[in-house]
Each structure stands twice: as C-alpha cells, then as structure tokens.
Amino acid sequence: xxxxxxxxxxxxxxxxxxxxxxxxxxxxxxxxxxxxxxxxxxxxxxxxxxxxxxxxxxxxxxxxxxxxxxxxxxxxxxxxxxxxxxxxxxxxxxxxxxxxxxxxxxxxxxxxxxxxxxxxxxxxxxxxxxxxxxxxxxxxxxxxxxxxxxxxxxxxxxxxxxxxxxxxxxxxxxxxxxxxxxxxxxxxxxxxxxxxxxxxxxxxxxxxxxxxxxxxxxxxxxxxxxxxxxxxxxxxxxxxxxxxxxxxxxxxxxxxxxxxxxxxxxxxxxxxxxxxxxxxxxxxxxxxxxxxxxxxxxxxxxxxxxxxxxxxxxxxxxxxxxxxxxxxxxxxxxxxxxxxxxxxxxxxxxxxxxxxxxxxxxxxxxxxxxxxxxxxxxxxxxxxxxxxxxxxxxxxxxxxxxxxxxxxxxxxxxxxxxxxxxxxxxxxxxxxxxxxxxxxxxxxxxxxxxxxxxxxxxxxxxxxxxxxxxx
Length: 471
Prior knowledge:
- This protein folds into 3 domains: 5-131, Fumarate Reductase Iron-sulfur Protein, Chain B, domain 2; 148-243 and 401-468, FAD/NAD(P)-binding domain (3-Layer(bba) Sandwich); 247-398, FAD/NAD(P)-binding domain.
- Helices cover 33% and strands 16% of the residues.
- It has helices at residues 5-10, 21-24, 37-44, 54-57, 65-73, 77-85, 91-97, 119-131, 156-167, 184-187, 196-209, 225-230, 261-269, 296-307, 328-336, 405-408, 440-443, 448-468, and strands at residues 148-152, 171-175, 212-214, 235-238, 244-245, 258-260, 288-292, 312-317, 340-343, 345-352, 358-371, 377-381, 387-390, 393-396, 400-401, 435-437.
C-alpha cells in the first residue's frame, strides 16, 4: 500500500553505518559502509515525488532524482542505476564525494521541515548494488561517425566528456599526464573517502565502451594542440585541472618537511607512500603535523597524517569554523578522529634546525572583521599575539591554480589574468576553433560534479560542432 505524504514525512533519515573513529584512524579503508537494501528502500520512501523537481535543478548533471528514488523505493535497483547513468556515468564516485548538501539536497522539499532525502547515499547504493550484481550493463552506442576527439586530462570533466561522446558514436582518446586515470579523484581524494578500486571500475567501464586511454602523455610537451589536429583529431577537449599549488610566501616554506597538499596527498594516494618501503615513494614520518587551510583538501591531508601515525595533527585556519569551506561531514569525521582545530590563527613564519628540517611554526591570532568579496568575514591579525608551536611537518592546503602547461604552449588560447582558460559557459567553446574546455582549468578549484556538468555541456556542443562544423 502506498504511503501518504504525512507517513513519508514521519520516516527518519537513515544513518549509514561506518567504522568507529578508533578503528579508522589506523587504516585507509573507506569510512562509511553504505546503506543495505532495507535502509535504502526506507530512505527512498521518504521522497514526496513533488510536482516540481527542485532537487533536479540543483544537480549539475541533471540526474532524474525523483525517478531513481521511486525505483529504489519499489526495489527496482537495476532500473534506478539505469536512470542515473542516463546522465551520470560515474555514480559510485559522485555518491561518495559530491557536496549534495549544498546542491540537490538543499533543494529537497522534505528538507524544509526535516532532514532532506539522502540523495548522495542512495546514488552510491545504486552504483554499489550494480557492481555487486554482475557489473554495469553497456548502454546503446550509436553508429560510428568517423569523427575523432582528443580529451586532454583524465579527471572528472574529461571522463564525462569521453563517456558521453563515445555513446554518440565518436571515437575518443583520453590523454592523461599521470600513470593512472582519474585526475584529482585519483591523486587528491584519499582511499578512505574514495576507494581506488571503485574509481578503476568506473574508468574500466568507459574503456569497455570503446574509449581509448593513453597515460604518461603530457600534452603541451609531448604534442601541442595543433599537432593533435594534424594527427587527425576533429575536436579537442581540455580538462587539465587546477594542479598548481599555492603557498603562503612566508619565511621557511622551503624547509624539509614542508609539503603542498598536492604533493602530500599524491605521494599517499597515487603512489602508496603509506606502505613505504613496500612502495618506493617515501613521505615524512611525523609526530606533530600542521595543516594550513579549512577546505576539504585540508581535511583530507589532516586525516591522512593521522593515519600515517602522527601523534598530533592540527588544522590551522585563519577564520572560524562557520566560515570553513569544507563539507560538514568531513569536519565532523576529522574531529571524531582526533584532529585538533586551531582556528582564528595564521602562520607568519616556519623555523628549522641546522639540518634544514622544520621544527616550529610561528602563528598570529586573528579576529573577524567585515565581510570580504567572498561574503565571509575578513580575518584581521591581532597585533602582538604571535606565538610558536612545535611541528615537524607542515602541509599547505590553501588552494590551487590552473595547470599552465597547455595555455603556455598555445598562444591563441585566451586565458584570464589568473591563468584559467576562457570558455563559453553554455558550450565550453574556447577562443581556438575546435577546442573546448571545462572543469577546474576553467572554473578554478571547484567540485567534481561541477566539472562533470562542464563535461556534459561540452559533449553536447562537440557533437553539434562535429555534425555542422559551425563555430
């Protein structure tokens, strides 16, 4: 018997089971276990099936959320994953790392009077159910068009473009500079948030559809964009990301034991430094680690340091917790795992020993002033409040800039003063004919799902361009 709206509203949001903090701070296994079938059906049954799908309006890749929730509620799990994959070929990834609480879930009508539907957790459930029940089914591939597209960058934007274009009948080659696919999903997000076997499975599915992958391929050095066109590619998509780390430009940043978050996480995630010497990439074994920043990358770095054996791990952030850009779930998990939050303070210099290793960090206390251009209250130093703290490792996680390699070698490609590629927000077209761009190289350091949204728009525009040659 169908539930009434009042009955649906009485069902509490289902909480995912997860490792205890005591367990997980000692391993790199995924923290949440995910829903079982009964939990998923109950959670999906909370959906009111509204007449106006405001949740879909909040999804950058336009997943038909009410439909797949209704299918899960009716135990049609195969139908649910089929619905999701109509617009999103990376659901196991998105269900884990996308900020649904500020996108689709914040638009949920149920959330106006209670907790919103756990859309991300249900997307993850559907993807995990499929993987444990025979794996993904290949979608219908249109007849081959004879057109070839080069995708530069194997991150979320590039993978989305590749998946959409291959289904449209075009031949697609993805050029990835690193030795494994996934971009920031591979090198930036830790195993305990996104198991690499899941990412590999999603990439492997694209390969089965016919996408060709070339790793260790540094476009901008190995080939220019013009040389790719000369090789017979009819269009190019640039999804090279924002992998250029920013630093604080304070004294002592060149000391040993000071890392950018990019290097720190890449050593651990992509190169397995946590199992040194089994894997031959070392990472500093530290007792007192300071992570500078308040975003998701800072939380990932701090939680990684704790798992690598650090006794004390500090988050150093110049504003209060209210202004932190990190997801609430990541802050919550970090606190549970014993990460120490030192808020309203900012580093002023790093101090080292005679061997060149960092030993102390000088900070100054801050107070919040008027809001700045970001809408957050501006941190103001408190004169004379400097103090020192013992550290033997510092991870700088204050943001990243766009990868400069391709723009540097492509003078007719328009960029902003910050180095981001200029692209039309509706079509992702750049100033260079036949070249499209999306993801962090255009947006700046944004989210996985926004990069995928760029990828979907670019795929539609590339398909139109290949058919008409109109620029």
